[in-house]
Specification:
The protein is mostly helical. It has 13 helices and no strands.
């Protein structure tokens, strides 16, 4: 006999969380029930990404949303699903140039609490560049993802008073972050797209990074999975905007 939506959701929650069910709202049992069945049955059945990747992208959404209160539960969920501590840390760390330092700091503080409670050692530094190499290394990543001609044209046409922003994109956004160890460029681009869609109001960037995901080897299904994972936390308006960005660069066949 097939499980009911409630039974399937409860099974998924028990597999991921020892005690802190993030959908449990003590004062609102009806909302809790609706949310649990939607996230841990309906959405779970739709997602093709692994459970570990689903939990890692949920951490990205929570970070971009600036809702760190659920970070501890989903950190545990990611670890129980098979993600490494380094993958948890790096998925949030990578959000910094897209969502800003304060949100990432708040999220990582919650992650550190869980790691300390579980007696997991702090993650080793993952950077691969120096002050001398970060610009060229970042520019190389940019050119590989977006096309050398596009990046060179953008840099060449930048007005003098905003050239520093273009330089920061290469040295900081791509040089300091995309070149780090633990996650590959496909994983980083999917995180980037997820974070930007979560922010909302950044559709031109979301569209560019949807295209970038396709260029580095992610699929339309990967993008749809990321968007579907984000949906319960960002609502339908931002989800539909994100869907428009996906459809613009990777239309359904």
């Amino acid at each position: 006999m097939a499980q009911t939506r409630e039974a399937a959701a409860n099974t998924a929650v028990q597999r991921l969380f020892t005690k802190n069910d993030p959908t449990d709202i003590k004062s609102e049992p009806e909302l809790s029930s609706i949310s649990k069945k939607f996230i841990y049955n309906d959405i779970n059945k739709q997602i093709r990404l692994s459970t570990a990747k689903q939990e890692l992208l949920t951490l990205v959404v929570l970070t971009a949303n600036n809702t760190p209160e659920d970070i501890p539960a989903h950190t545990e969920g990611a670890l129980r699903a098979g993600a490494t501590p380094e993958q948890v840390h790096e998925s949030i760390f990578h959000c910094t140039p897209y969502v800003g330092l304060p949100k990432v700091k708040a999220a990582l503080e919650r992650v550190d609490q869980v790691m300390e409670m579980l007696k997991i050692k702090p993650c080793a530094p993952a950077g691969t560049t120096t002050d001398e190499t970060r610009y060229e290394a970042g520019l190389a990543v940019q050119r590989a993802i977006f096309g050398a001609e596009n990046i060179d044209k953008m840099n060449a046409s930048a007005p003098a008073d905003q050239k520093h922003i273009n330089d920061y994109l290469s040295a900081n956004c791509f040089g300091d972050y995309y070149t780090r160890k633990v996650l590959d460029v496909k994983e980083r681009e999917l995180i980037t797209f997820t974070a930007i869609v979560t922010l909302g109001g950044c559709e031109s960037q979301a569209k560019a990074h949807a295209a970038a995901n396709i260029s580095v080897g992610n699929t339309r299904q990967d993008l749809l999975d990321a968007l579907t994972i984000a949906l319960p936390y960002i609502g339908y308006p931002r989800t539909l905007n994100g869907l428009g960005c996906i459809n613009a660069v990777a239309p359904s066949k």
